[in-house]
């Protein structure tokens, strides 16, 4: 069904801003055709840059609006109940998405904040341990790690080969008994390469190192199970494949590491003063001047306040993902990637993505960059051009894209 036929069915009118959020779980629209109407920007242009950030959906907008109404008008008429659902459920929803326990999930402002939390507080790094990564890790993280290297930390960056692949043997050679942390991106934002994290974790753990995974290009895009991957800590922002907005993200910390291998550092919570004039009568015995109880979950790593509106959007995004199913979204998106590959000359447009049938990211090296941006703009097509490489075009379709979107991009490519 093309876009015009789809809109003619009237479904778009039925799915107003609050329709998805208000519908009970299991009864909401769950296929790719109905999903397009939930993303208004997809009706205005051919948006094929989900890896850069998905457009604001009507259901995420509705979550933000409902939370704003709670702030503006108070808890009456279900507004307080909605707020409670967001805060009671959002960690558990993310946990179920990645195969974790709810107690293993905390909230962070962005992916890098989760990575930095480990770097700042991992005891082994404070005593001269080293960090190992590779150059397919997120460039913002590499920038941070390079700054730490220049400040004196032992940071080892394994370079990809000419095919933009990092053999596990190269990573293993860089890891030794002084390695405290191995940090990588599960899915490369540059090429879409899937890091063999479980194999890497086996090497790292034999040397006593922790493994951090940046899962921002994986969570919601492909099925993942952090336990099966054997990662220790992972983090992602919500504004990409989780259909949220900037400023809200999730942190996974393996339960048995919390407060020990990865020590507490923010100590969130509140104390009561156990002395006059704060109390009346005798002080509690064995407590000291202040009552204190540390959180016993990954919430111990989050600050006192977070982006409440951001998590309302993320809550609705996670509901959408879990209802539609990540496996379905993956099949839909990778089918579009395959459709594009079938229509282009791969001898002229070098394919950089190793497994385009597994990820919703197709990275191409154009034969030339001159005029490409102008042709894309004239066709109303949004992809990522340039960025981490001088000659790169990254295409990343999502649930709101269809064959007509791919065909329009293919026309631009063939005209080059």
Word description of this protein:
There is one protein chain. The protein is built from 17 helices and 13 strands. Helices cover 38% and strands 12% of the residues. Helix 6 packs antiparallel against helix 14 (308-324) and helix 7 crosses helix 14. The protein has a domain at 88-267 and 307-321: Type I PLP-dependent aspartate aminotransferase-like (Major domain) (Aspartate Aminotransferase, domain 2). It has helices at residues 3-8, 11-14, 19-22, 32-35, 41-44, 58-73, 79-98, 111-121, 123-126, 139-150, 168-174, 197-206, 226-229, 308-324, 326-343, 372-378, 403-414; strands spanning 46-47, 105-108, 130-134, 155-158, 179-185, 210-214, 233-237, 249-253, 350-351, 362-365, 381-382, 384-385, 393-395.
Topology:
Blueprint lengths: L2 H6 L2 H4 L4 H4 L9 H4 L5 H4 L1 E2 L10 H16 L5 H20 L6 E4 L2 H11 L1 H4 L3 E5 L4 H12 L4 E4 L9 H7 L4 E7 L11 H10 L3 E5 L11 H4 L3 E5 L11 E5 L54 H17 L1 H18 L6 E2 L10 E4 L6 H7 L2 E2 L1 E2 L7 E3 L7 H12 L2
Parallel strand pairs: 1-11, 3-4, 3-5, 5-6, 6-7
Antiparallel strand pairs: 2-8, 7-8, 9-10, 10-13, 12-13
Helix pairs in contact: 6-7, 6-14, 7-14, 15-17
Shape: globular
Number of strands: 13
The proportion of strand residues reads 5-15%
State the low-pLDDT regions, or none.
1-30
Mean pLDDT: 91
Distance between the ends: 28 Å
Count the helices. How many? 17
User: CATH superfamily of the domain at 88-267 and 307-321, please?
Assistant: Type I PLP-dependent aspartate aminotransferase-like (Major domain)
* Oligomeric state of this protein: single chain
At CATH level 3, the topology of the domain at 88-267 and 307-321 is: Aspartate Aminotransferase, domain 2
Just give the CATH class of the domain at 88-267 and 307-321: Alpha Beta
Please summarize the sheet with the most strands: 7 strands, mixed
Helix content: 25-40%
Please state how the strands of the largest beta sheet are arranged side by side.
2-8-7-6-5-3-4
Give helix and strand order, one letter per element, not per position: HHHHHEHHEHHEHEHEHEHEEHHEEHEEEH
Instruction: Work out the radius of gyration.
Output: 23 Å
The CATH architecture category of the domain at 88-267 and 307-321 equals: 3-Layer(aba) Sandwich
Secondary structure class reads alpha/beta
């Amino acid at each position: 069904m093309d876009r015009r036929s789809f809109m003619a069915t009237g479904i778009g009118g039925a799915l107003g801003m609050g329709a998805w959020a208000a519908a009970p779980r299991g009864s909401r629209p769950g296929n790719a055709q109905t999903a397009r109407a939930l993303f208004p920007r997809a009706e205005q242009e051919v948006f094929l840059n989900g890896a850069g950030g998905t457009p604001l959906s009507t259901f995420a907008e509705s979550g933000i609006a409902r939370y704003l109404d709670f702030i503006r008008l108070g808890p009456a008429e279900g507004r307080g109940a909605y707020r409670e659902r967001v805060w009671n459920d959002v960690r558990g929803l993310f946990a179920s998405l990645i195969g974790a326990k709810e107690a293993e999930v905390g909230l962070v402002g962005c992916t890098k904040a989760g990575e930095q939390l480990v770097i700042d507080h991992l005891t082994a790094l404070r005593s001269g341990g080293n960090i190992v990564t590779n150059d397919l890790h997120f460039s913002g993280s590499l920038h941070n790690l390079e700054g730490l290297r220049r400040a004196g930390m032992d940071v080892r960056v394994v370079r990809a080969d000419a095919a933009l692949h990092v053999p596990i043997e190269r990573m293993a050679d860089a890891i030794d008994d002084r390695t405290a942390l191995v940090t990588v991106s599960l899915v490369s934002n540059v090429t879409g390469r899937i890091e063999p994290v479980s194999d890497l974790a086996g090497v790292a753990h034999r040397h006593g190192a922790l493994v951090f995974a940046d899962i921002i290009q994986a969570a919601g895009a492909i099925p993942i199970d952090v336990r099966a991957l054997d990662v220790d800590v992972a983090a992602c922002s919500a504004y990409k494949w989780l259909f949220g907005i900037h400023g809200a993200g999730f942190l996974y910390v393996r339960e048995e590491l919390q407060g020990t291998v990865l020590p507490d550092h923010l100590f969130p919570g509140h104390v009561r003063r156990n002395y006059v004039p704060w109390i009346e009568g005798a002080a509690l015995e064995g407590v000291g001047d202040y009552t204190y109880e540390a959180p016993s979950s990954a919430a111990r790593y989050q600050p006192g306040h977070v982006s409440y509106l951001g998590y309302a959007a993320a809550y609705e995004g996670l509901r959408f993902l879990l209802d539609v199913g990540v496996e379905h979204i993956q099949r839909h998106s990778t089918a579009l990637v395959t459709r594009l590959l079938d229509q282009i000359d791969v001898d002229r447009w070098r394919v950089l993505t190793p497994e385009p049938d597994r990820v919703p990211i197709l990275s191409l090296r154009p034969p030339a960059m001159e005029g490409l941006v102008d042709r894309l703009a004239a066709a109303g097509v949004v992809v990522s051009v340039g960025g981490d490489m001088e000659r790169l075009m990254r295409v990343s379709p999502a649930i709101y894209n269809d064959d007509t979107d791919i065909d329009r991009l293919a026309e631009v490519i063939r005209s080059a």
